[in-house]
Amino acid sequence: MDFTSPPLSLHDNGFSMVPPAPHGTPLEEMEKLKEELRKWKTRVEEAEEIKSDLFLSKLRADAECDKAEKKLAELKEQEKQRKDRIASCEELLLLKQENTELKKEIEKLKEDLEEHSSRDNPLEIKKKVAEMKLKFTHLEEMKDDGADVDMDTHCVFGVATKTPFRLNQNQALLTFEDEEVAQKLTKMSKHCVNLDSRTANVTVKPLELDMGFQFELHVTVSGKKINVSDIPELPIPEDWMRDKLELHFYKTQQAGGGGEIENVTYNKGSGTAVITFLKPGASYNFVGCTEYPFCAEERQFILSVSPHFDFHLRRFQPHCRVSKKTILLRGIPEVEEDEESVQDMIEIHFQKPSNSGGEIEKIKYNSRGAAYVCFEEDTGNATSEIPGDS
């Protein structure tokens, strides 16, 4: 290095000399720093206050949240208790209704018992049965009883009475195709059914039917007797009217002449008579025509003629039973929907296999009053409905 050469400037070596910025006195600088420090302390204090406020707010919010949760739990418990009370009240009302019905049945049974006890024949049974169609079974040969002599026709009909069942308000009957489904639902007893606006807890009971009867009706159509009705009431003695009837049916032209008459039983009050011919099979001449002209007191009347029947009951068997395919639903609440809509909802519920249901043959829901549903002995299924007292 040559120490004798003149020194180079710093600028030439990439540096430049920057003169220092003018500064105040040290006291002024110190004051500025102290002022800045006070500001930062103030900000820190404010931040600490905000932090404390936020922490207190959080504590208050947590406390309010706990209170709200407790309140919600209390409300849920109160709602559950209210529903339980409603269910208990509904069940109590149902029990009261059943108790009232049972009392009525007991009173009716007492009346029937008193009536039965007052009869001369304790084995005699009287019971009203619904109108039905008879099923013809066969013709009977009665040669030993003189059928070949009198030419009577003996018919046998099998009869099974329809058993009525009283379906009360807010009850339903369901008949299933499979009796196992009905038995399973009966064993479960309680069922929760969704009725759109609310959920109903209904009770399933077995269907216990009233006493029914089955018997054979033996009908004998007489070959010698005919019934005559619509006989006019005339101001003549009964003997004269009896003689006029005998003469008329002896020689009537419409039946080709009835022939000799054995007896005429005439009832003036009812305007009827039973005419017995001497010749067997003579009554068959009157089967083709039911109206016959009759002249008396210079006037002409029309008499009604019908075969003479004799009825006998045999193989009479009373029975009480429980239906295998039909169940009874009780405790269905009253809802705003119409009867048909509620019936559809019940049917949909009990058709689902998930609800232990199955295919339903027939359903009947009664929302008001009472109705009588008739059951046939051979199937145990509802066949007809008879309105009851509302």
Short description:
The chain has helices at about 25-115, 145-150, 180-190, 240-250, 340-350; strands at about 135-140, 155-160, 165, 170-175, 190-195, 200-210, 210-230, 260-265, 270-275, 290-295, 300-320, 320-330, 360-365, 370-375, 380-385. It has about 400 residues and is α+β, with helices and mostly antiparallel strands.
Characterization of the model:
The chain has 390 residues and is an alpha+beta fold. The protein is built from 5 helices and 15 strands. The chain has helices spanning 26-117, 147-150, 179-188, 238-251, 339-351; strands at residues 135-140, 153-160, 163-167, 171-176, 190-194, 199-208, 212-229, 261-267, 272-277, 291-296, 299-319, 322-330, 360-366, 371-375, 382-387. A hairpin with a 2-residue loop joins strand 10 and strand 11 (299-319).
Mean pLDDT: 76
Query: Sheet bearing the most strands, described?
Result: 7 strands, antiparallel
Q: What is the oligomeric state here?
A: single chain
The separation of the N and C termini measures 135 Å
Detail the poorly predicted runs.
378-390
Structural class: alpha+beta
Question: What general form does the structure show?
Answer: rod-shaped
Percentage of residues in helical conformation: 25-40%
DSSP, total strands: 15
Indicate the radius of gyration in whole angstroms. 51 Å
One letter per element, helices H and strands E, the order comes to: HEHEEEHEEEHEEEEEHEEE
Q: Helix count?
A: 5
